[in-house]
From TrEMBL:
Keyword Transmembrane appears in the UniProt entry: yes
Record's protein name: Uncharacterized protein
SUPFAM superfamilies (UniProt xref): Calcium-dependent phosphotriesterase
Annotated Gene Ontology cellular component terms: endoplasmic reticulum
Upper lineage: Eukaryota, Viridiplantae, Streptophyta, Embryophyta, Tracheophyta
Keyword list, A-Z: Membrane, Transmembrane, Transmembrane helix
TM region(s), chain numbering: 16-33
Domain of life the protein comes from: Eukaryota
């Protein structure tokens, strides 16, 4: 019971609090049950897990599997066979844990990204309860041996919450700090190259900074895009000069309460959060951008991850539904966006 209380308190203090309150506080139980019993109108992968919370989810096209990160620490795989075509809902085998890093016991596994040219998985680890530790680790995708472990922050460094990660063409990783409003740049061999900060990362009003920098993606034109959860600000950061620019949102759309992000094309990104998904497009190299589509999935599950499988966008959801005995049913669902 004490551990469950700690998890709840951590949600209130960190990146999940506002999203959690918004998405589940006002949803009647009967409606939740209705959502659970109804078939989705999009393609859904179901998988059975031993944990209630899942954070990141990425599709591994080479090994035909989804890789998911555990808030209790660790990474699992959900093997998927051939494309199911027009089948709406597919029952998938039980999630299989591929590793739990014993050196990081007690920390949550957060954002993850597949670095295919180097055959490795980059995974963020964080202390979501006390915000006193953060790290980035790389693991070999074939053996799951750890390639490196880089400490990003510790007890003497102030409050931080290492959250999401992106990787560039040279293997450099960029890790967002959802509490301290900064980005760590980590080299291909695990050395911390720099810490990127900017006055633009901090917004007026304490409530606008409860959850700061979150989802991040690398763009092949030499910059990365990162979203600020509470304010909805979108930034363009040059990977070499580390210059930070605010992307101007046009058209009246908002990115408030955003979480994970994936690059769909050079002009389009998909973003999760509340609502479940938003499609964002830029026609001028990400000087400006517009929210051009949205998708509303099962709000009570809370979309935190987004990935691309076979050209389709899929969302990973944080909360599972109880499945007797002592197991949880999770979903990864295709998002079909409606034009705004």
């Amino acid at each position: 019971m004490e551990s469950k209380v700690h998890v709840i308190l951590s949600l209130k203090r960190n990146k999940l609090f506002m999203l959690l309150c918004f998405s589940i506080s006002a949803i009647p139980l009967g409606y939740v049950l209705h959502l659970e019993r109804s078939l989705s109108d999009t393609h859904v992968y179901e998988y059975v897990s031993h944990g209630w919370f899942r954070d990141g989810a990425k599709w591994d096209d080479v090994d035909r599997r989804f890789l998911v990160s555990y808030l209790e620490g660790g990474v699992g795989e959900i093997k998927v066979g051939d494309d199911h075509g027009d089948v709406v809902e597919v029952e998938v085998e039980e999630e299989r844990t591929v590793f739990r890093d014993p050196d990081l016991a007690g920390n949550s596994s957060m954002g993850l990204v597949i670095d295919r040219p180097r055959n490795r998985l980059l995974l963020v680890h964080a202390d979501v309860i006390g915000n006193r530790f953060g790290a980035l680790a790389a693991y070999d995708l074939s053996t799951w041996n750890r390639v490196f472990l880089t400490k990003l922050c510790g007890p003497g460094d102030g409050k931080s919450l290492a959250d999401d990660v992106a990787v560039d063409g040279d293997g450099n990783a960029y890790v967002t700090d959802a509490k301290g409003s900064k980005i760590w740049k980590v080299g291909v061999n695990g050395d911390v190259i720099s810490v990127i900060t900017s006055p633009l990362f901090t917004h007026k009003g304490w409530y606008e900074n409860l959850v700061a920098l979150n989802g991040i993606v690398y763009h092949p034109n030499g910059f990365f895009l990162v979203v600020h959860t509470m304010s909805g600000a979108l930034y363009k950061v040059d990977a070499k000069t580390e210059e930070v620019k605010l992307v101007k949102l046009v058209g009246g759309g908002s990115l408030r309460l955003s979480d994970g992000m994936v690059l769909v094309s050079e002009r389009v990104v998909a973003v999760t959060g509340v609502p479940s998904g938003r499609m964002v497009e830029s026609k001028d190299g990400w000087e400006t951008a517009e929210v051009v589509g949205s998708y509303r999935g099962p709000a009570h599950r809370l979309a935190t991850a987004v990935t691309i499988k076979d050209g389709k966008i899929y969302l990973g959801y944080m909360f599972g539904s109880y499945r007797f005995p002592k197991k949880w049913k999770h979903i990864i669902a295709q998002a079909v966006f409606q034009k705004n």
